[in-house]
Amino acid sequence: MLFYKKLLKSIPLVAVVVFLYQGNSQSIRKNYQEMTTYEKTELVNAFYQLREGEDRITDMSDFHMNYFNFDNIDPNRLDIHFNLPEEPEKEIFLAWHRRFIFEMEQAMQDINPKLTIPYWESSVDQSTTSSLWDEDFMGSFNSNWNLNRNLSSFGTLPTQQEVDNMLAMTDFFEFSDFFERQRPHSGAHRWVAGPMLTSASPRDPVFYLHHAFVDKLWHDWEEMHHSSSYVRTDMIRYDGTYVFDGQTIPLVNPNDIVDSRALGVFYAEDGLATLDNYIVSNTYNPEELFYYQYTIEVGNNFIAPENTTSKMESITEVVLKPGFFAESGANFVAAIDTETTSLLAARSMVKKERKKKPFDDVQLDQVWLWSEGDIDPNDPTVVMQTFPNPFDSKITIKLNKKRDCVIEIYNMTGQLIKQEFFEFTNTLEINNLFGLSSGTYFVKVLGGNGETLVVKKVIKI
Amino acid sequence: MLIWYCFAVLCFQQGFSFKIVNKTPYAITNIRLYEYDMHIALSPNEASAVKTLSLSPEKAEGSSVLMLFAENTNYGIYIENPQSGKKYTYVIDSIQPKRNNIFISTIIEEQK
């Protein structure tokens, strides 16, 4: 009960559906089989809509095509495919496609903020009569857009064993090279045929579902190995020269997006979306909306800072776990999508059952709430002053009583940048911060027993 | 098992041969196949010489892409993975520059 009292005092938690009429969202990507009927219909409609007017579909396809293997024309040019193993300095395959499908997802979310690009798990879902190809899903595009797909006539899809073996590879470039060239990536292109066989493959909407799966596998690999690293620091197309619909697309460093969280992207699987190590920033969207019909678990350094807007919306449950922080002044909402729930009930659709019920393994008083500059209710003597702020090369933190503690510095994607330990002191100096990029960071002070004392936002100049 | 593996590898190392035929009305340049720069340009209705290659199965799987340049557009298309002892004729049947479409067909024969 204490938790709920704290929660209600600190956060505007709303348990009703709030319709969004504008703005975009971040994303929980899910297997297309875990989409609601509403999501599927909206996704199909969005693809059709994006083909109209400025025609984002053809634009994306043309770009993919023009830069498919551009150094075939001019060896000095950059391109997006077949650079490894000989030219690691040109390699951008996984990062480029991550950014590419993110851009398409953004365009979709301009149409409907609840939309995300789902993934097609081609190592498992291999039937030509799978619901993926239903006429009311990806099937209709075949005739309406003259795709001339020829499912299963040309090449085979990867086995689960192949994917597992690939995920066990430890060298990033070896992993990326194998991934791009072998069946985990190329298999679906061949198996679907039609435009998917060619460098104009993004003309087929299933390209995006396939590459969402490719991106998920990279995400899974990175979660295991934490060693994705590019030689290049800028990517073609996002080099500041490309203009679409009057907007210049800014430069992107592929190393900035090796963690999908940098784009606010999380992958759900088997009825569970785990959102962790992330700080809501509203960088891309005025409201970050995380939508999933099954369980959303939020915790482990998921932070909603002051003056940010975010929303978790599920049809079944949203679970706030230890490590979830919402600063007072953050506009954070956890909600049940009652409209879709009632539709599900009306249609007698079966909800996915999970073995554990919400809060089965969560001690509610472990869910941390924090507020910049606020006094820790469990230890009112701990007040943190951070100076200078903005800082350049050094931060000094003053606590008003001596104690053992650990200082951790996180970037805006929730990545731990630096960690230092201090014994029985009230003055903590963190030096040698020259190497940090300019921007916003979070300094977290933990007590001797690992408990979070306070978190503070600092700016590097 | 090992004997069968060695036999398969030896068979594969016999190699396969291929040629490219341009049936389109456009000149085609920058032809790259199995990652090899062919160093040729094909005029309309022209065919390349036959070339023989020997690739490991993994290399074949990972490089079976035909790339070419025509009408100011860079085309790429996955092709069938080659098998040892076969002769492949890749016919570029049609290129539609306005729609960025490319259509090819493959004739597979036993190598003599």
TrEMBL record, chain A:
Residues 204-215 form the Tyrosinase copper-binding domain. It holds the Pfam family Por_Secre_tail. Gene3D superfamilies: Di-copper center containing domain from catechol oxidase. Transmembrane segments: none annotated. The keyword Disulfide bond does not apply. Signal peptide: none annotated. Keywords: Copper, Metal-binding, Signal. Belongs to the tyrosinase family. NCBIfam families: Por_Secre_tail. PANTHER family: TYROSINASE FAMILY MEMBER, TYROSINASE-LIKE PROTEIN TYR-1-RELATED. This is Tyrosinase family protein. It comes from Galbibacter pacificus.
UniProtKB/TrEMBL annotation, chain B:
This is DUF4138 domain-containing protein.
